[in-house]
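Input:
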Amino acid sequence: MTDAYVVGVDMIKFGRFPDKTVPQIGAEATHLALDDSGLTIQDMEALYCGNLGQASGMVGQRILQEIGQTGIPVVNVSNACATGATAFREAWASVKAGLYDLVIAVGVEQMGRGLLGGAGGSKGISKEGLLGSGTMPSVFAEAGMEHARNYGTTFEQFAKVSVKNHHHSTMNAKAMYQIETPLETVMNAEMISYPNTKLMCSVNVDGSAAAVIASEKKAKELGLMSRAVKIRASILTSDPWQERDLVMPDVNTCTRRAAAAAYEMAGLGAEDIDLVELHDCFATAEILHYENLGLCDDGEAGRMIDDGEVALGGKVPVNVSGGLLSKGHPLGATGIANIYEVSTHLRGEAGQRQVEGARIGLTHVIGLGSACGIHILEKAS
Amino acid sequence: MSDSPLPAVDYLKIPDDGDPYLEGYKCSSCEAIFLGERANCSKCGERDQMEAVTLANSGTLYAYSIVHRSFPGIDVPYISAIVDLDGGGTVKGNLINVDPEPEKIEFGMPIEVVYDDALGRKDGEGNSYLSYFFQPSNAAS
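Output:
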């Protein structure tokens, strides 16, 4: 099988664009990624589009209706917060399988404001606030409290994740926010679902990101290897049965399985990873994933954030983009935006927030329900 | 409209002659327990081996969150709790009769399941509902 490379990748600055349509927002990132590769939509043999909000709305085709209806196959993908990563993986798989030599994956989302989750249940009465809470801040608070139960992780340690990621985003012009949030500010922000305060919840924003993927032969033929990023592993898992499944979505097991499979596919270990963009939908979640991804031993995540090992300049910087907490979380775009971030570091083009000497990076997303997508990327030459 | 309260969830059973209880479905092949009636086991994949079991009204607190922001009309703060029932089965609900403060809540604390009106909530036809709640098992009910 051929190796597959990212030869063009970009994202728009995340924000709120109520006057634009979803296809318009998606078309912007598609153009940016094509420009980054020096290619055009006429060069693409297939398009894979990730979007949740209009999952039945043929968003991929409507993006082509904005920028060029070339008649290529379009696949629309919806997989909760793993939507973007799934679209990217489908694009990767088509190149690996030898179906195409040049394809594009785009992720796009236009979000409302406010709480996600918890509104469900069509028959009878609302269960929210009656049978506990199904809001995302609560669900991930409970997942964090499971870690607190096992290892004594503190509110302050969870809050430090938010301090770190907001600090990182001050160096990322494409993040929604560029604002320092000291520890007291994070801990004293409005409590949403203990232990997650408002500044420990990801930001609902509109956004898009896209990546052009090429086979090795095509990347060489087009002279695109100098900035190419090799896709060393692409893994998708769903959640295996767990005891508490029905009331407590398990974000840990599917991540651990995906990480093990990704390291095996890449022939690498966690110690080889120079930077990580992981799914910090809530500050509590990031702590869990240090251990789930093998960045530290079980029970060490609290110490890892205390010691600064996951900050820029630390042993393995995590979410130097600002993460979902500060860059923002447009659900369908997130999985490709984190591929943009890691690729930018591997190319040595991340400016002030550059992870020095970065050669190998890992991206991770979790969609509740559940889907976990992990990609391992390496500088090509 | 029903004369008597309806169950808030389908795994809450209200017998004509007896106390309400929570019902699980247990796989007779691998013993996994689920909430709500089902035909197949998603742990081991066995078909048609599920049997109804009565879940215990006692258990321990596994994890929780204290909810301060919810949707309009929902009283906050409240404790969203995950409880492991004695003998198997995990359920989620409101933990009541405890102050919603972290220092008042202990992992593993013994819990009992109590049944009461669903906070006055009614459906579009005006039906009342019976729900379940958790409280510390040493609390007066």
